[in-house]
Design goal:
Number of strands: 22
Structural class: alpha+beta
Largest sheet: 7 strands, antiparallel
CATH class of the largest domain: Alpha Beta
Oligomer: single chain
Strand content: 15-25%
Distance between the termini: 40 Å
CATH topology of the largest domain: Uridine Diphospho-n-acetylenolpyruvylglucosamine Reductase, domain 3
Shape: globular
Low-confidence stretches: none
Bound molecules: flavin-adenine dinucleotide
Helix content: 25-40%
């Protein structure tokens, strides 16, 4: 291995690390799995990535132990996406620059921290609305690779809706830009002798030959980050947008080295309403009615989460809750630019609250709103700081069902928690019926390690029955990939396998993710303790940056 790594080092300008500390750090992410890499590579630019891929691909071709290449942003993935054996490519050390900010777009390297990018855009009155809750601690590359989404997705869509073009390094080291191409452009690309040309030919054939499967055989949810988004890849007139297949592909098809994203104006006037409900049914009915008003956010927090926070960090909820503990709280936000539209929507929302909620508050002032958002944002963060050997585990944290099944989803999830005697709290995106739930379990005990998969079996079977997807925004990773076959047809699963083979025939990039992953493999890599080292690492880095400044 030393000889191989030496050869790789000679081909790039960046560094390679095999230090014990790095190997340990890169062995985990925000999820419950652990895989030990051989080495970590820190490329300085796209050329380095190209050279790295060419070198590894040609060494693998010559035989011997094959090395894989897995991209990593900040490692906040909740399901094992950036974990692997082989080489981990960390884009955050050098490839973290904003290259250009235009009037309505931004060109950025993948390792740029998303929160930093948003702050720079904000200075120009713009933003990317599909940001995840982890915006301050994750990268833009990770958001593209996962097709991340968040509180504003209900109105503004997911990351894929903002991806205009991606510079990618293919599995033979070719570097190309992918974006929407017309049929004529596709035909020109198909005429060269390159891997890019082969990919366009084979993907075109796959798209044209499987129209019904591609458009019918996937869950009917408002957000989706599972599989490869073939249903988004065909453009008008028979053109192809490969950027749509790469977005959400978790580094299994190619490595992303530059990203061009659309930006939109930051809303100037926002109104936030918080409503308190005494039953699931009333909250669910309200959510459906509020959804019709096209809010810019429609978020949900349940009683269990509020009680947990009250128990462990009561100061966070001070002055935010009514006297009676609600069963469900909804946060509804409208950001329409025209005052009359905003007021009219708020009026209609107020009628919904009058009918179904037992109390509601409306705030126009941004500082007051920030305080109310704590109900949703800080509450979730508290989950990770609760002391004890049982930790809130991200194992069923991204199930998403058609919006009109929200109440059934909640009822059936609570039944599963009861069956398995689980302490659990629920929060998430009511508008998209995408619920985050993290049961408290102890990974060091055999009993909980066994129970974990009994819970996931029950949960994902229930999500499939409701017509939902296992991954609305957190992607397949290791945790969810084996369950995906319950939500997509065998024909669609076969197409996913074909896509992987077309882009990456030698399985160089992030093997055992998305495709080629089974329960045996997943179970072998379960951790024995849980913490999110990447969040601790990030906090240390930020503190160091502040001192250096
Ligand atoms: C507290 C918390 C809250 C979260 N909230 C949300 C949320 O609201 N919405 C949401 O969608 N997610 C959320 N997540 C999950 C995660 O933070 C996001 O998906 C995030 O976008 C991942 O970014 P990252 O930089 O950490 O990527 P990583 O975890 O490092 O990587 C994620 C995936 O992207 C691939 N990848 C990274 N860079 C590249 C590249 N350059 N080329 C190719 N592939 C690449 C990796 O191989 C991996 O498969 C949350 C996580 C935590 C811990």
């Amino acid at each position: 291995m030393n000889h191989t790594l030496k050869k790789i080092k000679q081909s790039i300008q960046g560094e390679i690390s095999v230090s014990e500390e790095d190997i340990e750090y890169y062995s985990t992410d925000g999820g419950v799995f652990e895989l030990t890499p051989n080495a970590i590579v820190f490329p300085v630019d796209a050329n380095d990535v190209t050279e790295l891929v060419k070198t590894v691909a040609s060494m693998n071709e010559r035989g011997g132990d094959k090395l894989s290449i897995t991209a990593r942003g900040n490692g906040t993935d909740q399901g094992g996406g950036p974990l692997n054996t082989g080489l981990i490519v960390d884009f955050t050390k050098h490839m973290n620059h904003i290259l250009e900010i235009g009037d309505d777009f931004v060109l950025v390297e993948p390792g740029c921290r998303y929160g930093h990018l948003q702050a720079q855009l904000k200075k120009r009155g713009r933003f990317i609305p599909s940001y995840p809750a982890s915006v301050e601690v994750s990268t833009i590359g990770g958001a593209v690779a996962n097709n991340a989404a968040g509180e504003k997705t209900v109105k503004y869509g997911s990351t894929r809706d903002y991806v205009e073009a991606l510079q990618v390094v293919l599995s033979n080291g070719e570097t190309v830009w992918v974006h929407a191409n017309t049929l004529e452009e596709v035909n020109t690309k198909k005429s060269t002798a390159s891997l890019e040309s082969k990919i366009y030919s084979q993907i075109q054939e796959l798209l044209n030959g499987n129209i019904d499967t591609i458009h019918n055989d996937h869950p009917n949810t408002t957000k989706e980050s599972a599989g490869y988004a073939l249903w988004k890849a065909q453009t008008q007139g028979g053109g192809i947008n490969l950027a749509q297949i790469v977005t959400g592909s978790q580094g299994t098809l190619c490595l992303v080295t530059a990203i061009r994203l659309k930006t939109i104006p930051l809303p100037k006037n926002i109104v936030l309403a918080v409503s308190y409900f005494d039953s699931l049914e009333k909250a669910g009915n309200a959510a459906m009615k509020l959804h019709e008003l096209e809010p810019s956010a429609l978020e949900i927090v349940d009683k269990n989460l509020l009680e947990l926070v009250s128990q462990h960090k009561p100061e966070l909820l001070e002055g935010l809750l009514p006297e009676t503990m609600p069963a469900i709280v909804l946060l509804t936000e409208f950001d329409d630019a025209q005052n009359e539209i905003r007021s009219s929507k708020l009026g209609r929302a107020q009628s919904v609250f009058d009918e179904l909620a037992f109390e509601s508050i409306v705030k126009q002032d941004p500082d007051e709103q920030a305080k109310l958002w704590k109900l949703r944002r800080s509450a979730a963060a508290v989950m990770w700081t609760i002391p004890g050997s049982k930790k809130a585990l991200p194992i069923i944290e991204d199930g998403t069902v058609p919006p009109d099944r929200l109440v059934d989803f909640l009822h059936r999830a609570y039944q599963i928690f009861e069956k398995h005697n689980l302490e659990i709290a629920v929060w998430g995106h009511a508008g998209d019926a995408d619920l985050h739930m993290q049961p408290f379990m102890d990974l060091s005990t055999e009993a909980d390690r066994k129970k974990l998969f009994e819970v996931t079996d029950d949960f994902y079977a229930m999500v499939a029955e409701l017509g939902g997807t296992a991954a609305g925004e957190h992607n397949d990773s290791l945790m969810r990939a084996p369950y995906r076959a319950q939500m997509f047809s065998p024909a669609m699963e076969d197409l996913f396998n074909q896509v992987k083979h077309i882009f990456d025939p030698d399985n160089l990039f992030n093997p055992h993710k998305k495709v080629g992953v089974d329960f045996n493999y997943v179970k072998q890599h379960l951790r024995h303790e849980y913490s999110i080292k990447s969040l601790e690492h990030m906090k240390r880095q930020q503190a160091q940056d502040a001192i250096d400044k």
